[in-house]
Amino acid sequence: MAKDTEKLIRQLSLISYLMAERRPVTALEIRRDVEGYSGMNEDAFARRFYADRAELADLGIQLTVDRPAEGVAEQENYSLRHEDFHLPPIAFTDQELASLQFALTLLDGEFAYAEPLRLALQQISWGRPSPLRAPGQGSVALGVTASAGGHELSQRLAKVETAIFRQKTITFEYHTMERDEVGARKVDPYHLLFQGGQFYLLGRSHERDALRVFRLSRMRGKVAYATKAEHDFKRPADFDPRAYANRADWQFGDPIATAEIRVSERIAWQVERHFGRFGEVRPAEDGTGDVVLHTEYAVPRLLVAWVLRLGEHAEVLGPPELVTAVRDRVELLASRHEGELELAPVVGTGPAPREADGAGDGKREAAIRPERFARLVTLASILIDAGRAGRRLELADVLDRLQVSEAELREDVNVLNVVNFGGGSYVLYAEVHEDGTIEVDPEPYSDNFARPARLLPVEGKALVAAIDLIGDHLPAGALTSAREKIVAALGADPMEQGLQVATRGGDDAEVARVVSSAIADERLLKLEYYKANEDEFSERVVEPYALVNGQEGWYVASFDPARDGVRHFRLDRIKTAEALEERFTRRPEVDPAADVEGWPRTGAVPASRTARVWFSPERARWAREEQAVAEELADGSVVVEVPFAGTDWLVRRVLEEAGDAAVVEPADAREAVRRAVSGLRAAPVGG
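-> structure tokens emitted (687 positions)
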């Protein structure tokens, strides 16, 4: 018997008893009538009853306590209103329910919160066709699924999630990249953020007595609780996690100044659409069509790197120290691409890069398992529904729906069989037969679990995070309106309660809707597309098949008749999109999700060539973390092998390293970087 079984029987019986009585009851009545309490002495009952009430409150199930005027504890009366346990009905449209069903299809077995997501979807779709049996639409594929990664990271994520829920201070070793040091940390965990393929912890650092951000993949060893107390801290009421999800890379940290960056009219639309939220965009005063981005920054180097990637289309106007930083970085780039790059002696080969989100084959490890309480409540609903219908359940089907082993399911059924609401009246009786079926008493004694229960905190977080991960990218989908209804039913946005998914880079919602509509209606799609690497605009008419997300953002996977092949277009580079009246017939040989396990997930594009790129000692640790290191050099620098399909892409990749990287070979790629840097020296990128 699992160690929490007796507690769960008590808690479920307490809920059944209070809702069956439909009146306030005393502690003495609860001790006498509720399964699990009757054999306790007065002191043991007081401790257990208080602990059970506190745990139920943490799960969002709040008992009502009526205290007499004199406040005598023995005379307190307890009740549980049905609205405090049952989920309010949610009037989903067929389209909204289909979108939720498809979201589960995309994420099942991949998402770190996949198991509580399954339970949540069964609860909110009560009385409708099971969301677990919905066919996939094939119009969306996910390279980035917010999976936990490997076993070690999965365990770390689960511990942090539990610590946030229980308000427990944690301790761990952490690798600080800026100083290249590993040190002990003691943190009050407030919130998890998934961004750019990684999970981050937002919390109060005891060492700094300030809010700090920790990347989970940079934690070392085990995460432990700092104390044995039930709770260690209370999250500040004014903490707002949204401020951290809406920051650019250069804004992580305390702001030191506000930059003014002039952007040419050619790409002004793109900067305004995708980076305007990180500051304020104003038209240039000379009427040229250029714009000026005003943005706060905390890390000058990262802002400089972004400016250099834009090439001659960006000019830093101020402040003076940032202007100087850009000029210095351009000169550093130039010096490291003049003549032959002199390298320190090779001292070894580097380690393999750490596993990225979703790397590997097959289903990922489920990091976050739902509370067993939630599983039992969902199972009770399934069993009562079958009992009322007078049908047997297939054991294999229930195992799949709950994602449990047969031994776990049998134990759960045994627990529910002894849950009662007093007077020998049991909630249900079910039996697992040897022929692989489950038989349920056709006349259950209680309706308490015949309606969907309120979502537990982890279920609510899983549901909303899944919606936010996919966003407006389902053809004919309705996740946005479904999200609004879910939040209204829960009474609060679960995103504010410990988990947030932030999309990388972003894309225009209107473009996404046009593309999704064209996919759903099988209409040709006309695109005005900006090829950033070549700095060219092109007009394409393509057959859109699916939306695919990846490390760099969302793409539309299409067949391009003009080029007689499959092409992927990044949504954030589509200036305009128009669904034409002309329809197309899907080509059976085109599989838009064929590459989803490849470059969308890993970030490594199919390439015909490989470049050897040197990284300075100052940036080598970042290169080791993300890329395949070919050589470790004596001065602490490294050489990595970078696959590339186009030289223009490689040039921009090196430019954004702001002088901390240089192409070693091939010679033509090194020369291409040198020419690009010469252009930057002639252009007013530094003011």
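Confidence is low (pLDDT under 50) at residues 355-364.
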